[in-house]
Structure formats: structure tokens, C-alpha cells
């Protein structure tokens, strides 16, 4: 029987406190009218920006969860992976994609590795090599600037130019994914702005959406951005519209949070802005890059 709503297998960790991973993925996609089936990769007391967090690797449990889903004959409109608790999980996720893949399905890999030039706390360098294998199975990947550099084994440069990022993106697309979206790209000549740059290898077009920079760092915004992109593409939006919706949502979330005296490690006040996902794009700010 055909599922009356779109269904996503979300392969992410679960952090008990701090708006990140599944506590961001599930409300965003649910608000966008999409059923989320979580396949947890790890359980953390908090996300890794907090100190002394408790971490439980679920590698040994994932195959049994997947076995049960296979027995049930589940089908998914999208497979969406994020933070993985161990480099050993890459082979599990690849096997999952190969088994559950079907025509007209969306496979999105957010290659969660690090930020600001460094790996996230629980991860080892083994994850980088394994992640290079996983992105070959994706239709869409959404690395930030640090993750793009790690995947390509290039030095992280916070002052990289847009043209250099375009070269990086083409190299990443050559590894398998049709669409590459790189976030946190500095706009050196624009002052306090950053951008998201995307490339569709099918039509060889580059798209860019810029956003204003605010002096605050909220963990989980990458998870939120990728989730809005997934939801938008499943709703039938074009790539540039999906980018626009995701950037607008994150910008709104940051602005709704920034004025409070508030521990930024808790993430954006997602609950204040979720309803905005029910409306269409108000302002289209994307541009085509030469």
C-alpha cells in the first residue's frame, strides 16, 4: 500500500540536550509533512559542543533494526544520513542504501565530520576515509567548508575564494553525487556575509545564496539546513528554491535567538520558527554563478 505521505529514513545520532541531529531533523521534516523513521547511530547526553558528555555507540544495534525494517518490507522516499557514531557504520549505511534504494528516491548524505577546521570530538581520522566512500552513493551531499576540505584532503582555509570553492565542488561531484551543496563559504569582498554554493552536475549550473553574518555560533544549524533542503526537494522544489528556503529558515532562527541572553550551545530557538516552514518562499535571493 502506498504511503499517503513522503517517508524518510533518517540515519543520525540522538542528543538528549542541545538542538542538533534527530531533535532537529524530526521536527523540521514532520512540520514539512514528511514522516521520519529514525535509525539512531549513537545516543549522547548532549551534542559534542558540551564537555564531558556521555556517548553510546549503537553500531552493534543498527543491523538488527535494519533487519526488522527489511522483514516489514518498508520503503522510503528518501534516505538521509548525518552524524555517524563510528567509522564502522559507513559499511552499514552503504548496505542500507543498496538494499532500500529504488527508482526516483532521494539519497542525501550530510558528511558530518567537523567545523572551523577541526574534527568533531567523538570522531577519529578513520571516519574521513570511510566518508569518502559513502558520498559516492549519494544524490546530494551537504558539507560545510571544513568537511569539504577534509573530504578532498585539502588544507582548511577560512578565507578561501568563491572560485576556489567552485573547484572544490566540481571535484566532490566527480566522486559520485549529482548535487553538491557547500555551506559556510566566506564572502571576503562582501563584508560580514557568508554564502551557500551548490552545483548540479547534471546541468553543470552553480547556484549561490548569501546571508548576513551575526557574531554567534549555534550548533545544529547544519542539521537544520540539510533537513530543510531534504524536505523542500521532497516537496518538489527546485534546487535553488530549496537552498533559498533553507537559508531563510536558518537566518530567521538565528535572528529569533540572537537577542536573548542565552547559551548558544543550546542551538537556535527552533520552536519559535518551525511554523515558517509551512509557508512558501517569500523572497528569492538565489543567483546563478558563471
Brief characterization of the structure:
This protein has 290 residues and is an alpha/beta fold.
Overview of the structural elements:
β6 (78-81), α3 (89-100) and β7 form a beta-alpha-beta unit. The strands form 3 sheets. The chain has a 9-stranded mixed sheet. It has a 3-stranded mixed sheet with strand order 2-4-5, with no helix packed on it. It has 9 helices and 14 strands. The longest helix has 20 residues, at 239-258. The chain is an alpha/beta fold. It is globular, with a radius of gyration of 18 Å.
Question: SSE layout and pairings?
Answer:
Layout: E1 7-11, E2 14-17, H1 22-31, E3 35-38, E4 42-46, E5 55-57, H2 62-72, E6 78-81, H3 89-100, E7 106-109, E8 114-115, E9 118-119, H4 126-134, E10 140-141, H5 145-152, H6 162-173, E11 179-186, E12 193-200, E13 205-212, H7 221-234, H8 239-258, H9 270-273, E14 287-289
Parallel strand pairs: 1-3, 1-6, 2-4, 6-7, 7-10, 10-11
Antiparallel strand pairs: 4-5, 8-9, 11-12, 12-13, 13-14
Amino acid at each position: 500500500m502506498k504511503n499517503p505521505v513522503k517517508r524518510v529514513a533518517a540515519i543520525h545520532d540522538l542528543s538528549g540536550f542541545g538542538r542538533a541531529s534527530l531533535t532537529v531533523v524530526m521536527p523540521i521534516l514532520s512540520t514539512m509533512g514528511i514522516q521520519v523513521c529514525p535509525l539512531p547511530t549513537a545516543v549522547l547526553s548532549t551534542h559534542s559542543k558540551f564537555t564531558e558528555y556521555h556517548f553510546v555507540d549503537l553500531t552493534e544495534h543498527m543491523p538488527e533494526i535494519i533487519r526488522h525494517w527489511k522483514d516489514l518490507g518498508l520503503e522510503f522516499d528518501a534516505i538521509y544520513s548525518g552524524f555517524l557514531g563510528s567509522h564502522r557504520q559507513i559499511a552499514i549505511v552503504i548496505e542500507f542504501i543498496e538494499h532500500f534504494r529504488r527508482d526516483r528516491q532521494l539519497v542525501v548524505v550530510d558528511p558530518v565530520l567537523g567545523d572551523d577546521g577541526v574534527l568533531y570530538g567523538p570522531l577519529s581520522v578513520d571516519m574521513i576515509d570511510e566518508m569518502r566512500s559513502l558520498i559516492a552513493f549519494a544524490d546530494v551531499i551537504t558539507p560545510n567548508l571544513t568537511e569539504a576540505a577534509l573530504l578532498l584532503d585539502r588544507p582548511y582555509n577560512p578565507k578561501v575564494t568563491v572560485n576556489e570553492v567552485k573547484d572544490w565542488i566540481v571535484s566532490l561531484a566527480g566522486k559520485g553525487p549529482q548535487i553538491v551543496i557547500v555551506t559556510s563559504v566566506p564572502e571576503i569582498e562582501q563584508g560580514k556575509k557568508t554564502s551557500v554554493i551548490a552545483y548540479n552536475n547534471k546541468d553543470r549550473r552553480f547556484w549561490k545564496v548569501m546571508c548576513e553574518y551575526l557574531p554567534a555560533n549555534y550548533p545544529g544549524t547544519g542539521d537544520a539546513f540539510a533537513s530543510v533542503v531534504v524536505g523542500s526537494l521532497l516537496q518538489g522544489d527546485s534546487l535553488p528554491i530549496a537552498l533559498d528556503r533553507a537559508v531563510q529558515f536558518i537566518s530567521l532562527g538565528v535572528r529569533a535567538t540572537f537577542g536573548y541572553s542565552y547559551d548558544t550551545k543550546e542551538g537556535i530557538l527552533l520552536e519559535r520558527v518551525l511554523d515558517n516552514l509551512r509557508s512558501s518562499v517569500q523572497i528569492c535571493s538565489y543567483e546563478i554563478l558563471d
